[in-house]
Write a structure and sequence with these properties.
This protein is mainly alpha-helical. The chain has two domains: 65 residues, Zf-an1 domain, CATH 4.10.1110; 205 residues, no CATH class. The protein is built from nine helices and six strands; from the N terminus they run E-E-E-E-H-H-H-H-E-H-E-H-H-H-H. The longest helix has 32 residues. It starts with a strand and ends with a helix.
């Protein structure tokens, strides 16, 4: 049995890349999935035509005319990503409310704050992946996963003992090292851990202040949002399937172990508090 060059999974019948000659599992068999050095050889007709036109000195003006159709499709793609992010945020909002037992009797400002906080917890995680990947010149966009979205919706039912927060993932295309891919995967959970730490410290500080009318509500709000962020980090660091943890583990077992242990401790503390 051979091991996948990216994730290290042992594969009985591995896929051999015809561009770089390495062996990969089914998840990383495509050139753009394993950062293939020969990715240009597998480039789209659009990319190859652009290079040919520019080399021949036709100029930017003609290229703009040639690429107008592609530009419209790209705008459509951006709109599609916004829709995917909006649906993903809505699903995470439902998960968040399930964690507080759908307490719709709370004051309106608390409910609105929960909605904003739940959505932001998800968006900061995914946009963290996206921003880090793009800082290395990679193409990255969020895309809904039908099965993951369905499981997220089903576990939003209050009586479900375990929650699944996996409505989708940031898909990355381009040539990148294993370190960049691993760090891109780790950035999302790190963002949530940082948010959780800030929220929990803020909740503790609020509790030490002289009593005021909304003190208990504000402290409850901060603690619950802190718990959700800790859980998002913990869940995504589980080294299974397409979760971030598997990619981080393939890159650096030590960094994965440390971040997973921290997320586990923060989840336990959040729910104990």
């Amino acid at each position: 049995m051979a091991k996948c060059t990216v994730c290290g999974e042992e594969v009985l019948m591995p896929f051999k890349c015809s561009y770089c000659g390495e062996y990969f599992c089914a998840s990383h068999r495509l050139p753009e999935k394993h950062g293939c050095p020969g990715l240009f050889a597998a480039a789209s007709p659009y990319e190859k035509e652009k290079k040919r036109v520019m080399v021949e000195g036709v100029g930017e003006e003609r290229w703009e005319r040639l690429s107008w159709g592609h530009l419209k499709s790209r705008r459509s793609l951006m709109g599609g990503e916004l829709l995917h992010l909006a649906i993903g945020a809505l699903l995470v909002i439902l998960i968040g409310f399930s964690l507080i037992g759908y307490r719709l009797s709370l004051p309106p400002w608390v409910l609105l704050s929960f909605i904003v906080g739940f959505a932001a917890s998800f968006l900061f995680h995914e946009l963290g992946h996206r921003a880090y990947a793009r800082s290395y010149g990679l193409y990255a966009r969020f895309k809904l996963d039908p099965l993951g979205a369905l499981l997220t919706l089903l576990t939003a039912i209050p009586m479900m003992p375990f929650k699944i927060i996996a409505p989708g993932a940031v898909v990355i295309y381009g040539v990148a090292s294993l370190e960049v891919l691993g760090m891109t995967a780790l950035v999302g959970p790190l963002v949530n851990l940082a948010i959780s730490a800030v929220l929990n410290v803020s909740a503790f500080v609020v509790g030490q202040l002289p009593g005021f009318a909304a003190q208990s509500y504000l402290q409850y709000l901060l603690y619950r949002l802190g718990a959700l962020n800790a859980f998002i980090a913990f869940f995504n660091l589980i080294p299974l399937g397409g979760l971030d943890g598997r990619k981080v583990l393939a890159w650096s077992p030590i960094k994965w172990a440390i971040s997973f242990a921290v997320s586990l401790v923060m989840v336990v503390l959040a729910f104990v508090i």
